[in-house]
Amino acid sequence: MEEKLRKSFGRYVTGVAIVSTNYLNDQAIGLTINSFSSLSLNPAMVIWNLSIKSSAKNIFTNCNNYVIQILSNKQANLAKIFSKKNIFERFDEVKKTMSPSGTFMINDNFTAWFDCYNYKQYVEGDHIIMIGKVEHLFYSEINPLIFYNGKLNENFNS
User: Fold this and answer.
1) CB-based contacts of 136: which residues, under 8 Å, 6+ apart?
2) Is the Cβ–Cβ distance between 87 and 104 less than 8 Å?
3) Phi first, then psi: what are they for 31, rounded to 5°?
4) What secondary structure letter does DSSP report for 88?
5) Per-residue pLDDT tens for 63-93?
6) Does pTM top 0.70 for this prediction?
7) All structural domains of the chain with their residue ranges
8) Which stretches make up the Flavin reductase like domain (predicted)?
């Protein structure tokens, strides 16, 4: 059933994002996600899912803020970098900057980004549902990177 479920979910087009935060105040940590969605306009809130097996589970569940960066169709390489096994080496390959809340993020041109307060979490099944209150945001007209049928797709045109 799990394999059929994975393939069925793969038939749904999603965007691709990187979520980043600070570890011990001076190290940038990040990972690739495709389980991101808006939750509420008022108050402004977003939702994403983190595997309970993630090596970053304790870092993200205990951080104050995180930044969700929506990848553009020119950033498939970032999705691959931030899905590597060693979470502590992912930012070594990119330039970083600070968000308005003082949270590490990648210094690049994104489709959008959301600087969030780590508001609530719920464990359901094999994931942690992460809810963030949006404190700052940015958007552009750059086309997004999409994930479909288990593959990154750079050819989305609006």
Assistant:
1) 99, 100, 101, 114, 115
2) no
3) -150, 155
4) T
5) 999 999 999 999 999 999 999 878 999 999 8
6) yes
7) 2-151
8) 9-154
Which amino acid is residue 47, in one-letter code?
A: I
65 torsion bin: left (phi>0), alpha (psi -120 to 50), beta (else): beta
Q: d(Cα 143, Cα 97) in Å, to the nearest integer?
A: 22
User: 101-111 burial, b if ≥16 CB within 10 A, otherwise e?
Assistant: bebbbbebebb
Which of 113, 152, 149 is closest to 132 using CA atoms?
113
Q: How far apart are CA 64 and CA 59, in angstroms?
A: 10
Task: Give the CATH H-level superfamily of domain 2-151.
Answer: Electron Transport, Fmn-binding Protein; Chain A (2.30.110.10)
DSSP letter at 87?
A: T
Q: Which two tokens stand for residue 75?
A: 């950033």
